[in-house]
Amino acid sequence: MKVIRIHDKWKKSLIIVISIIIFIWSLLCFNIESTGAHTNKTIWEIDRFIQSKMEKNNIPGAAVAITHNNKVIFTKGYGKTGDNTSVTAKTPFAIASLSKSFTALAVMQLVEAGKVKLDTPVEDYIPSFKLTDTKGAKITVRQLLNHTSGLTDKVYPDMTLNPQPNSLEAVIKRLENVSLAVEPGKEYHYNNPNYQILARLVEAVSNEEFSTYLENHIFQPLEMEQTFNVSTTMELNQNPEFPSGHYFLFGIPVAVDEPNWFISGPAGIVSNVNDMAKWLISQLNGGKYRNEQILSSESIKSMQTASSPTISYGMGWNIGKTEDGKKQVQHSGILWTYKAEEVLLPEQGYGIVMLFNSGLNAFVDYSSFTSGISKLLSNQTPNEPFYNSQMIEMFMVVLIIITIIIGIRKLKYIKKWEGKYKKRPKWRSIIYLIFSLLPLYILVFLPQLLTFIGGGRVLNIKGIFLMMPSIIIWLGITSILSLAIVIRCVIRIPKLKNSSQISNLKDKLF
């Protein structure tokens, strides 16, 4: 009995030692700082939540930062980069359209310095800014910030331009041949060139190159030491220290270079979650980080306020409410190989940023990460659907296999159609053949269809493929098979007519 008791004591001691080791190891893996409104238990739940969602959606790498008031309470990296190294809180990510709030803040700094007035036409600051449409002379700085300038993707589709501009001044030059879609100030239309024009305004007024201005007046004061701005995605692809992002091919992440796109102003910043945590703190503390006041609290408040009762966009931020009615300030960032989500909860004092090294995908709901974290911070349960992207991708694989089987079967048993063709009215056969090519019509006009569905955003076919490769492949296979079937049917029609005439002649003779 004595031996058993000694064994039990050693067993208990071993368990305690292992528990301590695990606890210390966990602290080394990510940073936790607990303050009153949240507990270590909440942070553990958030950590498990992120890991679970990444696994279900097969996301290769991501990083998160959470702040509360003026403190960082959680940062961590998950998964691998495109170079197969472990993601940490220091790993660089393209933050894409989260850059807009930085550009807006740069403009507001110039407003506070008395160098820019929000309701003055932008043409006063950039004399070379001349649109074909004379209404362009009315566009104000505020309207650019609010996306109410009258520019839309339909009149200036910046993502599909070929070649892409190579400077902010080149963007201004390209706009010379553009007419506005609507009168300035009348309607909201999210449009990246609005923020390219604003970046050029910063250069013209400050006499500093835009990237240099950001570095001197925002990044350095906030101690964002690893953050920088680029003009084009080609600069990302050519940077050996910046790993490639990913797109999803049937749910499998594939590392690939970002397509060429001029992004300075609306989407050009590269950062990490350590640096972005400092940005969150400044945004939630009236423009102040430690002893640096980068913008007045009044200006921060105006940036984070909707531009009108009917428009939910402020200045570089989307303004809305949480499910329980509290204010939420948010923005998403989208590239084809990188994605970013950022949320401010001013009433609770929380800031959340998640950066992903996988891009826009039709089946992955990236915003559900930050919305789930927000709920956990409020002691609520995240709304998790029973399905995930991997399940949908598996469905697409099955659908493609079924499509191929049905298509081959139709080609093999074309005589069944020939029999129906002889019996039914010819107009029905023509309608059948026309509608058989529906997948081909959808594939050919997919960019226009997505522009109509997506509120006017214009995408090129390469970007569409990276966003939904499984759907494009299915449409492509369906289109080829349906076209082959229609061609074979059309080729057979004259022969069917001849055989029908011969048959009728035989009936008359015999």
From TrEMBL:
<feature type="transmembrane region" description="Helical">
    <location>
        <begin position="471"/>
        <end position="491"/>
    </location>
</feature>
<feature type="transmembrane region" description="Helical">
    <location>
        <begin position="12"/>
        <end position="28"/>
    </location>
</feature>
<feature type="transmembrane region" description="Helical">
    <location>
        <begin position="430"/>
        <end position="451"/>
    </location>
</feature>
<dbReference type="InterPro" id="IPR001466">
    <property type="entry name" value="Beta-lactam-related"/>
</dbReference>
<dbReference type="InterPro" id="IPR012338">
    <property type="entry name" value="Beta-lactam/transpept-like"/>
</dbReference>
<feature type="domain" description="Beta-lactamase-related">
    <location>
        <begin position="46"/>
        <end position="359"/>
    </location>
</feature>
<dbReference type="InterPro" id="IPR050491">
    <property type="entry name" value="AmpC-like"/>
</dbReference>
<keyword id="KW-0812">Transmembrane</keyword>
<dbReference type="Pfam" id="PF00144">
    <property type="entry name" value="Beta-lactamase"/>
</dbReference>
<dbReference type="GO" id="GO:0016787">
    <property type="term" value="F:hydrolase activity"/>
</dbReference>
<keyword id="KW-1133">Transmembrane helix</keyword>
<protein>
    <submittedName>
        <fullName>Serine hydrolase</fullName>
    </submittedName>
</protein>
<feature type="transmembrane region" description="Helical">
    <location>
        <begin position="391"/>
        <end position="409"/>
    </location>
</feature>
<keyword id="KW-0472">Membrane</keyword>
<keyword id="KW-0378">Hydrolase</keyword>
